[in-house]
Amino acid sequence: MKNLKLLGVMVLVLTLSAFSTTTEDNGYEVGDLATDFNLMNIDGNKVSLSDYTDAKGFIVIFTCNTCPYAVAYEDRIEALNKTYAPKGYPVIAIMPNDPDVKPGDNMEAMKARAKAKGFTFPYLMDDGQKIYPQYGATKTPHVYVLQKTRKGNEVKYIGAIDDNYKDASAVKETYTADAVDALLNNEEIETKETRAIGCSIKVKS
């Protein structure tokens, strides 16, 4: 009987530990401070958020070459950068997939895609897949709008770019743009979190 009780306690402790670990590993929530990173860009230079001394914040987007959802959003991501980088909120795109699993997302493919599409934003590789789990990204694309504060880069919005990945002309809710507009106007963001729609991030099994 004592052994059974001890076993039950051990199972409970392990269960609670597992739950705690899972919670901590879910990534950022709105209001959290995002740590900086130092990732390789397609131009061969490392990029960090701290490089952008004049930025007011960032539109960090986990995206890739091979996901149909990400491809559908490429022009809209470019439009976000052209609209908001001059206002202090540049797009920072990060490719989170393991290129061994998805060769179409290796650095050479990233360079080719960026050149073909004329990307004006940095396109970084999450080498070793260390950054996307910190953020809690699960899809491509997955957006995190950050605002520079005295405390650090505060997460202000998490989720989708807008409400229609299929047709840009049919979009009714521009979540990411609305969030940045609210920050620029010192207003409260109306929708702070949405469900990201896209492909799962690819890791080795």
CATH superfamily grouping:
Glutaredoxin
Strand proportion? 15-25%
Strand order of the largest sheet: 1-9-8-4-5-6-2-3
Amount of helix: 25-40%
Number of strands: 10
Number of structurally distinct domains: 1
Largest sheet: 8 strands, mixed
Say what the CATH topology is.
Glutaredoxin
- The second-level CATH architecture is 3-Layer(aba) Sandwich
> What order do the SSEs take from the amino end to the carboxyl end, as H and E?
HEEEEHEHEHEEEHE
The geometry reads as: globular
Outline the low-pLDDT stretches: 1-24
Helical region count?
Answer: 5
Q: Which structural class should the secondary elements be placed in? A: alpha+beta
Mean pLDDT metric: 90
Based on CA atoms alone, the radius of gyration comes out at: 19 Å
Distance between the termini: 41 Å
| CATH class category name | Alpha Beta
Q: How does this model look, in words?
A:
By secondary structure, this protein is α+β, with helices and mostly antiparallel strands. The protein has a single domain, classed as Glutaredoxin, CATH 3.40.30.10. Helix content is 32%, strand content 19%. An eight-stranded mixed beta sheet has the order 1-9-8-4-5-6-2-3. It has a two-stranded antiparallel ribbon with strand order 7-10. A hairpin with a 4-residue loop joins strand 8 and strand 9. 32% of the residues are buried.
List the keywords.
two-stranded antiparallel ribbon, alpha+beta, 205 residues, globular, 10 strands
